[in-house]
Amino acid sequence: MRQMKPGARAMAEPTSNKAFPVSWDQFHRDARALAWRLAEKGPFEAIVCITRGGLVPAAIICRELGLRLIETVCVASYHDYKNQSELKVLKDVAPSIKAIGDGKGKGVLVVDDLTDTGKTARVVREMLPNAHFATVYAKPAGVPTVDTFITEVSQDTWIYFPWDMGLAYVEPIAKDHKG
User: Fold this and answer.
1) 81 lies in which domain range?
2) Which residues of this UniProt protein bind GMP (predicted)?
3) Cis link prior to 52 (omega < 30° from 0)?
């Protein structure tokens, strides 16, 4: 069981036994691969990252595509990792970003780490209907909500992102080993 910091909320472990652990190196490679695909889809004038998961891939993509106009949209759902509740927009996209291009997101790139059910992407797409939506990973229910992604995983697979994991001591197999 994961140790929690004081004041942290407990998260239920996923019910699926399908796990997809992603290391920092693998995530960086996948985010760069996404940037390669996006390079031919632009040009983009700005990037909007969906917090919090979109922050890391957006930083990598901004570097690779030379984007300097960076915005966030903050959408939260309070859930137990089995059931997602109603989404709440904590921070909307700035009017100056919405005004780019056709005033509906043309020329704006929206980035997230994963599209799972597609609910978050649909909320953001209402704000920027003509933006290009990209995620590093996609599950089948979320695929229709994005324009570009790198890796599809099954709906019942739990992705363990590197920022959600930490190193921990593991007992040796031979506990009485003196060495």
Assistant:
1) 21-160
2) 116-120, 158-159
3) yes
Taking only the tens place, the pLDDT of each residue in 134-158 is 999 999 999 999 999 999 999 999 9
- 117 appears as a binding residue in the annotation: yes
Number of domains in the chain: 1
pTM of the model: 0.82
pLDDT in tens, 17-50: 789 999 999 999 999 999 999 999 989 999 999 9
Say which residues have a Cβ less than 8 Å from residue 91's Cβ, sequence separation at least 6: 51, 72, 73, 74
**Residue 166 counted as an annotated binding residue:** no
Buried b (16+ CB within 10 A) or exposed e, 53-65: bbbbbbebbbebb
Both structure tokens of 7: 């004041």
Which residue in the block uniquely carries the two structure tokens 């969906």? 50
Active site amino acids: 112-113, 116
164 is in an annotated binding site: no
Q: Domain with 45 in it: what CATH number?
A: 3.40.50.2020
Reference 115, options 138, 132, 88; nearest CA is 138
Please indicate, yes or no, if residue 58 is contained in any of the structural domains: yes
